[in-house]
Structures are given as structure tokens and as C-alpha cells.
Amino acid sequence: DMMKEVSGLKDLERKIKSLLDIKDVIVVAGDSDLSPWVKKEMGRACVACMKERLTSQSIVAVTGGTTLAAVAEMMTPELKQIDILFVPARGGLGEDVKNQANTICARMAEKAMGNYRLLHVPDQLSDEAYQSMIEEPAIKEVLDLIRSSNMVIHGIGDAITMAERRKTASEEIEKIKQRRAVAEAFGYYFNQEGEVVHKVKTMGIQLEDVKKVEHVIAVAGGASKAKAIKAYMKQAHHSVLITDEGAARELIRE
Ligand code: F6P
Predict the structure, then answer these.
(1) Strand pairing of 240-244 and 24-28?
(2) Ligand 1: which residue has its CA nearest to atom 5?
(3) Residue of 245, 190, 236, 179 lying closest to 213 (CA atoms)
(4) N or C: lower Cβ tally within 10 Å for the chain?
(5) What pLDDT, on the 0 to 100 scale, is given for residue 12?
């Protein structure tokens, strides 16, 4: 649109798209590190992007985090015509209740007047408990829905910030640091090259599954996330990135 062309955002979008070599990029004005409302603007852009891409009867899987919480707040009932089923992308990843995938999933569905299913699994599971839980019919059913989603909307975080926010055990944090993780998404930690160096064990969508999903939208902004975005996108070329000017300008500076 005209406003974006004039403000130079379109130019930023083109630059970031070719720099990261990804499907599409949307850049909103501002820096969410400095102004919290910028997350809502990314949310608004994400909802518009969903509307453009979704056809009837879609399954949308979502992750947690404050950015996705902002996306949920911006969801509108016009999406009702599409008949969306919202599901959490993965099980517990150690977030506060308000930022958990389940909470966000339910909120999105409420705002979009769609339906939702939740995944009730504890954050830390022993191998044994894990094996028996995935056999539970009620859980299995939701896992199948998650695996057949045709859209995934997720956040990206700085690796150390996320490990600390999750109150990860100190030995595990050491491992994450030693392996030079810089990005985190879906419970996976990535190094600068976009290689997985650590993973939180939980059920739901796995990284291999994400690569097969038709529409994948990453929503992440703020200059402090530039390194993480760059690293994550190295292995996510078929994704759409919704970000802000703060992250975009920092990405170009790097
Ligand atoms: O923990 C869920 C999650 O989506 C992470 O995968 C991601 O790194 C993080 O939240 C992003 O959180 P925020 O939007 O609050 O920066």
C-alpha cells in the first residue's frame, strides 16, 4: 500500500525477503522491544495474512509466547466463514499460563469464533509416562489433528532468554550455551547456522512436520531478536515472516 511505500517499509520487506531467502516478509512500523503496541501491529498483520491464505475448513496450530498472545488479541470474527479449528502446536514448554499455547489457542478461537481442541500434557514427562500418554485415545486424537494442520503460526525467541524464562535446569542451560544456540522456536534451539542443537521433549508438532505444512507464519520482532530470526530462518525458507522495523533494520545492519 501507499503508506508503506512512502515510509520505506516496502523496501525493507524486499531487502529482508532476499537477505533471508524466504517466501514472504511483512514489516510493521516501530520496534516491539521499545513499544509494546508494536506486537499488536504484528498481530494485525498476521490476521490479515491468515485471511489471505486460509480456505474453508482449516486446522491452525499455534505456539505460545507474548507475541502470539498479541496475535490472539487481534483475531477477528470475519475468520468465522473459514471454519477454523485451532490447536496448540506442541505440549507444555514451560511458559506462564497466559502465554501457553493452550491459552492462546482457546483465546484465538474465541475471538475468531472458531473451534479449538487442547493438549493437556505436563511440561516434564518421564519417557515412560510419555509413551503411555501418546497412546491415550483422547490425546492421540488431538495429536492427529495437530499433525494434519495446514497452517502453523509460531513465535521465535532468543535462545538464552527463552531457556531462562522457562527456568531450564542449569546443566541444560550450560549445554545450550556451549552449543552456541542463538534461536528458539517450538521448543527447539538452533545455532547460528540454523542447526538444531537442543530440543525440549514434548508431544505435538515436530520440526520435520513443520516443513511439510502448507502455510507457516513466524511472528517475531524487536531488534533484540534479529540474530534469532536470522538463524531460525536458515532452515525455514518456505515460511512467511511477520516482523517489525526494529528487527528488520538490525538484520540489515548485521
Ligand atoms: O515458548 C513458546 C514460544 O513460542 C517460543 O517457542 C518462542 O521462542 C517464544 O515463545 C517467543 O516468545 P515471545 O513472543 O514472548 O518473545
Answers:
(1) parallel
(2) 185
(3) 236
(4) N
(5) 96
Residue with cell 492427529: 144
pLDDT digits (tens, 9 = 90+) for 59-98: 999 999 999 999 999 999 988 888 999 999 999 888 899 9
- The 10 Å Cβ neighbour count of residue 21 is 9
**Residue that has been written with the C-alpha cell 513466524 in this structure:** 218
Among 62, 119, 162, 176, name the best residue to mutate to test ligand 1's pocket (greatest count of ligand atoms within 8 A of Cβ): 162
**Locus of grid cell 490472539:** 72
Residue 156 C-alpha to ligand 1 middle, in angstroms? 5
Query: Is the ipTM above a cut-off of 0.90?
Result: yes
Q: What span, in angstroms and rounded, lies between the C-alpha atoms of 135 and 188? A: 24
Q: Residue 3: is its pLDDT beyond 90?
A: no
How many Å apart are CA 100 and CA 66, to the nearest integer?
9
CB 116 within 8 Å of CB 149: no
CA angle 248, 75, 199 (to 5 degrees): 60
Report the nearest-CA residue for atom 2 of ligand 1.
64
